[in-house]
Amino acid sequence: MENRIEVVPFCDHWAKDFEQEAKRIRESLGRGCHQIYHVGSTSILGVWAKPIIDIIVVTANPSACFEGLQDIGYRYKGEYNIPSHHGFNKREGREVNLHLYPEGHPEIELNLMFCEFLRTHREQRDQYSGLKKDLLAKSDAFEKGSGGFRGYTLGKYEFIKKILDQCGFKRPRILHCTHREEWKAVRALRESFGHDSKQREEAEENPPMLWCLGSSIKGIAQVISGPMEGDRIITSMALMEDMPSHLGKWTYVAMMEKWLRDTSAKRVFLSVLPEEISLWGNHGYERTQKIHSDAYGQSEEKVLLEKTSDVKVKLGIKDIVYE
Predict the structure, then answer these.
(1) Bigger pLDDT: 267 or 25?
(2) SS3 of 245, please?
(3) pTM for the whole thing?
(4) Which homologous superfamily does the CATH classification assign to the domain defined by 13-164?
(5) 3-state class of 220 per DSSP?
(6) Among positive and negative, which fits the CA dihedral 36, 42, 44, 45?
(7) How crowded is residue 147: how many other Cβ atoms within 10 Å of its Cβ?
(8) Of the candidates 258, 260, 309, 261, which has an alpha carbon nearest to the alpha carbon of residue 283?
(9) Which phi and psi angles does 39 have, rounded to 5°?
(10) Torsion of CA 310, 316, 320, 323, to 10 degrees
(11) Which of 106, 89, 85, 110 is nearest to 98 (CA)?
């Protein structure tokens, strides 16, 4: 049954399965494979897990790895809800979910820290196994919501969030808003930021990007198309004030701009209030005369900025990611 989720006791052969699969991947990708990690529940001794090996492959150039992975039986599945993540799977023979990331991507550290914490904390490890079994007993375990996530996956959300907090994961990261728990946080944020009903309705039609610090959603932004093909405009940016001093809107915009340019964007603009022009000028942005706000229905109060100089952004924990 396609929708069935099988969770089984930990199997000793999973580590060997990973090593054998990692060898095939390294041979196919050659120097393109910089690091390879066994992650997910099959990498954690004693945890009940779906019998599917999860692997992270780190590379400098993800698109250059696609052909090599497809040559050894992997199918491309898309980004899912994580910008600059490339998901693959293999269902013939040894079943594998493969996650291809550019170097420095925060989700690499997230996965490694989560797994290492459970390996060294037996109580939480056993709680995770118990939670999985409890979730599978629920009637909605196999049902997919509007974001494509099953009840089983959503049921683990709060536990995973708690573990990430406990293990000290604090990297800035961006996500696509996709499932009900994230939408709850977005609606609460929009209320606190004072967004009007029209802005909230537009967000429902065009799901926002989430600006996260560790497991917490701290801000939001929208991406809309500009009047010319390939133009993307980052707008409706809002960030909570309780952020570390070295992090700001520019931190998340740098990640979004990198992701947009790596996908389909030819030009990326920011839509900001006039009083914010000088702030963004410190990060290499200047007012553009190429397009006007009324060309895409933006408020007359907003102005468009375009990056005209390359300013290195510091995150404090790590330099700006994926470069």
Answers:
(1) 25
(2) coil
(3) 0.88
(4) Beta Polymerase, domain 2 (3.30.460.10)
(5) strand
(6) negative
(7) 18
(8) 309
(9) -130, -175
(10) 100
(11) 89
pLDDT digits (tens, 9 = 90+) for 103-133: 999 999 999 999 999 999 999 999 999 999 9
Q: In the chain, which segments carry CATH 3.40.630.30?
A: 170-307
Tell me what pLDDT residue 313 has: 47
Residue with tokens 């993307």: 232
Length of the chain: 323
Q: Are 150 and 143 within 8 A, CB to CB?
A: yes
Per-residue pLDDT for 296 more than 60? no
What is the edge-to-edge ordering of all strands in the sheet holding 231-239? Answer: 172-176, 209-213, 216-225, 231-239, 267-272, 303-307, 285-287
**Residue 34 in contact with residue 60, Cβ under 8 Å?**
yes
- 66-105 b/e (C-beta count within 10 Å ≥ 16 → b): eebbeeebbeeeeebbbbbbbbbebeeeeebbbbbbbebb
Closest CA to 107 of 74, 79, 138: 79
Q: What torsion do the CA atoms of 210, 177, 79, 218 make, to the nearest 10 degrees?
A: 20
The closest of 131, 145, 125 to 45, measured between CA atoms, is 125
The C-alpha atoms of residue 207 and residue 93 are separated, in whole angstroms, by 37
Strands (E), 50-171: 53-59, 75-78, 86-90, 96-102
Range 128-152 average pLDDT: 81
Q: Calculate ∠ Cα 193-196-202, nearest 5°.
A: 105
Residue 315: band (very low, low, confident or very high) from pLDDT cuts 50, 70, 90: very low
Which residues are bridge partners to 173 per DSSP?
A: 212
Pick the CATH number of 170-307 from 3.40.630.30, 3.90.1150.10, 3.30.930.10, 3.40.50.300: 3.40.630.30
